[in-house]
Amino acid sequence: MFNRDRWREILEVLTSNVGRTILTAFGVCWGIFILIVLLAAGKGFENGIRADFGDIATNTMFMWTRRTTKPYEGLPKDRSFEFKVSDVQAIWDNVPNLRFVSPRNHQGGTGGGNNVVRGIRTGAYSVYGDYPEIINQDPMTITSGRFLNYNDINERRKVAVIGRGVLNDLYEKDEEYLGTYIKIQGVNFMVIGSYKKNSNDGNGEDSQKEIFVPFTAFSQAFNRGEDVGWMAITAKDGSSISKLKDNIINVMRERHKVHPEDKRAIGYFDLYEQYNRVESLFVGLKAIAYIVGIMVLLSGIIGVSNIMLIVVKERTKEIGIRRALGEQPWSIKKQILMESIFLTIISGMVGIIFGSLVIYGINSLLDSVGPVDMFINPNVSVGVVSGALMILMISGLLAGFIPANSAIRVRPIEALRTE
């Protein structure tokens, strides 16, 4: 391996026909380049889709009521009904392995009329009546003050946690806002904290323009009584909300006298099921990238093997002389293998370098133009690069194996007669 004469011979062989060497190396270089770029692109799509999910707890389902489609127990079809606060305890009592059951209410939104006032400033914001657990299901960073707690719930405190977007709209820059009041639909709420959410849509303005108030204060202030708009239900780690979903819905059907076969009366969105589908998509994209990249790389390796066979053919007389002078077959075989591995690794390294430059260029472009939906920070890990190098070493060994065996099979006397 550290024989200077051996390496000088390798370089002489590879530079004796530069054009042929470059064309041979291009196949390997292109194969590893395609592999790196495809894996980076797949990672970029994965990052973008994961960002759409944000930090929300993925083992979660959302459930709400709709009109019934079947009569049941003397009640007509096309009947509307509402979840109640007591339904929360019923779910806890009848469904095991749950981590959070959060009733929620909502009013307003950025697309509606102005529903929040502070002084002479107004705005249209989504206002949620929530329990403290919601911060674990829809995570946010508290940038100042605090989030809701159970003292707020039990005492029906009219307090609010506002998003950075609300803060920027209703307050001057650097103005103190903790302890001040905003008026939501004519009812005063004291600001006790602010939050910021991670988002994929630039600054995520819609997700920053939300206001969270205690569920009980929301119900009292806006005359919701015991009604619940919808529920966010999260299963414990190790349990699938998708498997608990039917049990939860059946409990609600029974409590609200909904026909057991009425599939439309209770609506739901299974985030865990959707997330698993996305995970399967990620696996598929990665598999396609590996298959395409390795197939292209394989074509380059076959090219290396063919060229090495030609090189061995051209050096038949030289090999015969070396054999006649007593050089061992393994020494000649090792020489051919080293030439093949060296050519393959150098070619692959060039492909990795060009692939890295392309990825760097794409990331620089994304940084300059801003976030692109569903495509964020394409990259490959060190493990992928290490794996690519390992593939190259094995490929170079395989590419040189047949030519090396061909070289040592030639008998010295026959090699010497070759012109």
Can you lay out the helices and strands and say which pair or pack?
Layout: H1 4-15, H2 18-53, E1 60-65, E2 83-84, H3 85-94, E3 98-108, E4 116-118, E5 121-123, E6 126-130, H4 134-137, E7 141-145, H5 150-154, E8 159-163, H6 164-170, E9 181-184, E10 187-196, H7 205-208, E11 210-214, H8 215-221, E12 227-228, E13 230-235, H9 241-255, E14 266-270, H10 271-314, H11 316-324, H12 329-369, H13 382-409, H14 412-416
Parallel strand pairs: 6-11, 8-10
Antiparallel strand pairs: 1-13, 1-14, 2-12, 3-6, 3-13, 4-5, 4-9, 7-10, 8-11, 9-10
3D structure, described in words:
Helices cover 54% and strands 17% of the residues. The protein has 419 residues and is of the alpha+beta class. The chain has two domains: 4-54 and 277-417, no CATH class; 104-227, no CATH class. The strands form two sheets. Strands 1, 3, 4, 5, 6, 7, 8, 9, 10, 11, 13 and 14 form a twelve-stranded mixed beta sheet that branches. It has a two-stranded antiparallel ribbon with strand order 2-12. Strand 4 and strand 5 form a beta hairpin. The chain is elongated, with a radius of gyration of 34 Å.
